[in-house]
Write a structure and sequence with these properties.
The chain has one domain (3-103): Alpha-Beta Plaits. Helix content is 31%, strand content 27%. The protein contains four helices and four strands; from the N terminus they run E-H-E-E-H-H-E-H. A four-stranded antiparallel beta sheet has the order 2-3-1-4.
Length: 105
């Protein structure tokens, strides 16, 4: 299976005075990601704990398809977020057992 990682960062419209969740328009990004998760395109992702951005791993698309998709994210299109795109291999996929063990620590 092919995966593409997107590293989201602070764009030119990022307000340094506000935390990630307080950025104007950030909920549009959250809705975009929820829709991608619901349609099965988004494998996993989330914000970094230090407010430096976040990561999303998309499945079954090539780099160009993910670039076109991410360009429709309102926060990327509006300049609030940047998107750095990298194809990747996933030789160590998470399993339910791994996720459960990690959440217990």
């Amino acid at each position: 299976m092919t995966f593409v990682t997107v590293i989201y960062g602070r764009g030119e419209r990022w307000d340094a005075a506000n935390a990630f969740n307080d950025q104007i328009g950030i909920m549009g990004h959250a809705e975009f990601l929820r829709a991608r998760y619901a349609d099965g395109t988004l494998y996993c992702g989330g914000p970094f704990a230090d407010d430096a951005g976040g990561v999303a791993i998309y499945r079954c698309l090539d780099r160009d398809a993910v670039a076109a998709l991410v360009a429709t994210d309102p926060c990327v299109a509006g300049g609030l977020l940047t998107a750095e795109i990298h194809p990747m291999w996933l030789p160590f996929p998470a399993t339910t057992a791994h996720a459960t063990a990690a959440s217990d620590t």
